[in-house]
Amino acid sequence: MKLRIPEYVENLVPYKSGNKLEGGITREQFKAMTNLASNENPFGVPEKAKEAMRKAIDESHIYPDPSGSELVSALSLHYKINKNRIITGSGSDSLIQMIFNAFCTKGEEILTADVTFIGTYVNANKLGRKLRLIKTKDYGFDLKSILENINDNTRIIYLANPNNPSGTMFSGDEFKSFMEKVPDDVLVILDEAYWLYASHHKDYPNGLDYEYDNLIVLRTFSKCYGLAGARIGFAFAHREVINILYRVKLPFEPNIIALHGAIAALDDSEYVKKTVETNKKCLALQESKFDDLGINYVKGFGNFTMILFDDETEAIKFTKYMLENNVVVRHLPMFGLPNAVRINTGTLEQTANALDLIENFK
Ligand SMILES: Cc1ncc(COP(=O)(O)O)c(C=O)c1O
Predict the structure, then answer these.
(1) What separation in Å is there between the alpha carbon of 74 and the centre of ligand 1?
(2) Strands 109-113 and 130-134: what pairing?
(3) What's the gap in Å between 92 CA and the centre of ligand 1?
(4) Cβ distance 93 to 119 under 8 Å?
(5) How far apart are CA 255 and CA 245, in angstroms?
(6) Ligand 1 center to residue 219 CA distance, Å?
(7) Is the Cβ–Cβ distance between 338 and 332 less than 8 Å?
């Protein structure tokens, strides 16, 4: 092939999801397993969202409204935020891409942690943006060190609270003191993909309570709202930040089926309650079992726990053992953590079954 490819694209590798397994396992076989590798919702698509999405199929011959106005209105009512401060996209992943495109150019820096949501690295690399990765402290964001590393070339800082894959959380006090020191011309992304799982913790900062002109808060329908496959998320920010993002947004994302599903899911408080309550119980079950078995782990504030083994060999052996028993967990070498494995919560039954297996792991 004679086509010329930018160097930063040539160096990329396609994204490999936790739902894609080695060894010729088909998607059908995969679906029959218990997937505790992708932090998805174990309760399936919420019934109300299913019904709304079925109806939306009948509208699929027309383009969606480019501003997703019905969903924006529903979000505005739900979160009591002005509509002009909200934008929707095909998942947080797509919103991150929009932000990197709009607020940073090649050669300018995005600061984040060396262990955080992989979508951040993927989006920066594919756009040829310069990433500077700050070492995590106890697997969480080291906000002090991030502040110390800001320079004239820094345009964006990405934080996830709780973080993925470590599950760590920083407090409201830490966040406020951080924001007060970040220069006004640096945009801070606060990714709250797991906020509903964490919001009962007294120190957890709800991003919507902070009105900084240089802050953008990301939320997704992929986790507590059970719509990971529909690809839909949203962001809150100052109206001028939102206006800029509309300049780079693909006009017709999110798609019309996802938009209708999200409006219905937003209202399904029973489903969200069941999800959050089950997660709380499952995290407690995980922690108590790991404590009993003397397994080293990082306390998780999302819907997963990160287990730490002595070395990579042990982590690989564990991941294989779980897979042989039809449970998929996520080994984490791609985050520079070859001795770590992430396991998300499932239903109570799935979680108990996984923990029984872990008890018998030798
Ligand atoms: C911190 C964080 N942000 C965003 C996402 C992905 O969100 P979405 O499915 O909306 O792209 C994930 C998914 O695992 C995540 O862990």
Answers:
(1) 21
(2) parallel
(3) 6
(4) yes
(5) 17
(6) 9
(7) yes
Mutation choice for ligand 1 from 90, 93, 115, CB with most ligand atoms inside 8 A: 93
- Say if residue 6 is preceded by a cis peptide, omega within 30 of 0: no
Residue 93 in contact with ligand 1 by CB distance below 6 A: yes
Q: Is the pTM of this model over 0.85?
A: yes
* CB distance 116 to ligand 1 below 6 Å: no
Residue 220 in contact with ligand 1 by CB distance below 6 A: yes
Strand partners of residue 296? 308
Each residue's pLDDT tens digit in the chain (362 positions)?
Answer: 888 888 888 888 877 765 566 666 788 888 889 999 999 999 999 999 999 999 999 999 999 999 999 999 999 999 999 999 999 999 999 999 999 999 999 889 999 999 999 999 999 999 999 999 999 999 999 999 999 999 999 999 999 999 999 999 999 999 999 999 999 999 999 999 999 999 999 999 999 999 999 999 999 999 999 999 999 999 999 999 999 999 999 999 999 999 999 999 999 999 999 999 999 999 999 999 999 999 999 999 999 999 999 999 999 999 999 999 999 999 999 989 999 999 999 999 999 999 999 999 98
User: Structure tokens of 132?
Assistant: 């500077």
Specify the ligand 1 atom closest to the Cα of 220: 10
For 273-341, the three-class secondary structure string (H helix, E strand, C coil) is HHHHHHHHHHHHHHHHHHHHHCCEEECCCCCEEEEECCCHHHHHHHHHHHHHCCEECEECHHHCCCCEE
- 270, with CB counted inside 10 A (0-12, 13-18, 19+), is exposed
296-300's contacts with Cβ under 8 Å and 24+ in sequence apart are 298/138, 298/139, 298/166, 298/167, 298/168, 299/167, 299/168, 300/162, 300/166, 300/167, 300/168
Tell how far the Cα of 228 is from the centroid of ligand 1, in angstroms: 9
**Which of 15, 98, 223, 303 for a ligand 1 pocket mutation test, highest count of atoms within 8 Å of Cβ?**
223
Amino acid, res. 301: F
